[in-house]
Every structure is written in C-alpha cells, then in structure tokens.
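Suppose a colleague, Dr. K., hands you the sequence of a protein chain of 357 amino acids and asks what its three-dimensional shape might be. Before reaching for any lab equipment, you can write down a predicted structure in token form. Begin with the sequence itself:
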Amino acid sequence: MGDHSLPDFRTCLKFSVTARKSFLCMYRDDVADEKLASPMPSACDIQLKTTIGEMYPAAGMRVTIMNSTTESLDSLATTHIQDFEIVIIPDVNSLSRPDQAKLVRVMRESEISSERAQSGRIFIGVIHWSNQTPPSSATKDGDDASKPTAKTRVFLPACIHIDGWLKHKFWFACAPPHLNFDSFSESSISTRATNNTEATKEEEQESADKRSVGVDEEANLDDVFVGTNVKRYILDIMVHLRTHRLTYNAKAGGVYTNSLDDVILLSRLISLHSGKMFVAPSHVKEASMWYFPMHLELVRRSSMDSSLLYGSDPNLVDEMLEKLGKIKFEEVNEFENPLFLESLVVKNVIGKVVPPV
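The predicted structure, expressed as tokens, is then:
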C-alpha cells in the first residue's frame, strides 16, 4: 500500500476474516444510478463474491449478496448463523436511516454471536464514489440567489454518506479487487465454481496453505506483544487527530473511543503478517494509515471550523477550503482514492507524533 493509496482487497479480506470485522470496498462510480438501484446484483457485487470464492474455495464460507435491502435485513436478523458468512451490501450510501439502524443491530448481534462460537458473520459494504468538481466560492454574474452562500457551501464533500454510528461499525475502507470488471455475470460465477472443482493438486495445496495461515494468525493473535509505550503512541495519534486543524472538533474528528482497540488489533495482524511477535511503531503507523482515513470527519465548510469562534475570517476559511478542494480533486484522480485528503491528515499527524524508542 502506498502512502495515499487504498489497501488492497485481498489483504483486507484476510485480516477481516481473521478478526471477524466488517469493512468497506470503494468502487469508482461508472454505473448509472438506476442500475445501482436495481434489485439484481451489480457487476461489482458479483466481482466481490467471485474473488472471495477464489480466496476461500471449499472453506465452508457462505457469501450472500443483499438484493432487497429491507427484506434482506429482516432475513439476516432472524437467520441463525451456522457457518461463517460474508454479506455484501450493495451501495451502502443508499440505505435509509431506518435501514441503517436495523443494520447496526444486525451487525451488533453478529459480533456477539462471533464471540460465543466459531461461526460468525462479517459485512462488506460497497461504496460508489465519483470525483466531483470542487465548488468555487467566487460569485459569478447570473448566479441563482437560491444557491447556498459561501458560508454553507460544502467545499470538501464526503464520499461516505452514512451516519457515524453505522460507519464506525466498519473497520476500514479498501480498493476493489483487480479483476476483469466487464466479464462478471451470474453465469460466470457458476462457470468459475465448476472450474474451481477441477483445479490441480498444486492449486488446492496453495489454497489450503492460505487457509492455514489465517487459522494460525487467529490462534496466535493474542500472543503478539503490545507494550504500554506503543499504546500511548496510539493514544497520542488519536489526540492529535481529534484536534487537527482540518478535523471537525465537534465530533472529535471522527476518532471514537473504540479506535484504540481496533488499531491495536490491526497492528497485531500487520506485525504477525510480517513475521513479528511484537507490535513496533512502524506497524502502528501502517495500521493508522489503514484505519483512520475512513473514520475521520473533516471540516467541509467554513461554519464547521472552530477557529471562527476565535475571530477567523469566514472568507479566508472559504478560500483555504476551496484550495484544498482543488488539490483533492487532482490527487484523487491520481491515486484513485476518494479518502486522499483524510489519509494526508493522518500522515501529517504521524509525522508530528514522536514514536517510542
């Protein structure tokens, strides 16, 4: 993973299955809105399902794509979890607030059942995003008076529109799997499933090795040592993110209390993945770049900036946000990361906080 690139899907899936955590998958929106609202699974949902099947063939893992949101949520709430299940949620941003509340309850119940038994359920939420042209604060001739004024105009629009109490149920956001997007259909899934059954012994052995790695990581996860100075380092990063110039201080920058436990867990997975039995500051830095960008709440308009309480000029704040919006627009296209500005804030904080020696 680069400094400002999204984590890859396969590593995120491997970590999430081991930790029993849900995550988001960011797809650039090249599909029409009416197609996204269709009850049939879209190509990206089928792509995710196929990738999961390739990573965990014959592993007793069930993959479900939610078709009708309300009916699927009701079904999940009443279905007893017998095997490990991965639920793909198409277009999470389109969920209504009642459906979001229902999904939070289902995810909470799934977490409780995962702690009690080997079976469990995680969710992969699909986020469709597009790089919108940043608005300008300059007033032009012929502008409609009904348009929002500069004080309420959003210069840094968010790509994740769900409420915070649902967003924090997801662990982090990742890039989509690198597969042929146009070749996926319902028939291709059955064809690939048939091909998987005819795999060679070498491929079967390789997949068995991958599964054994995941089991070993889960078994040894608690054995990875995390020192008190490392925990303090994570807390320092959290405090600096909450008070950063670009984070929305009224919501603590989006850094909530469970962030400490989540970053420690992710740091343990990263350290174990790299062959270490202890968490080093470098593992914490990488975990922070994975975890925090999705959760951060940035200042998106001048009225959200706390410096106005101390005499800052709203017009100057608008100019600053407008310039940041232009930079974000250019860099998002380069890195294919809608959370570029959030990752830049995290990197800035990591550069300021002194790691333990």
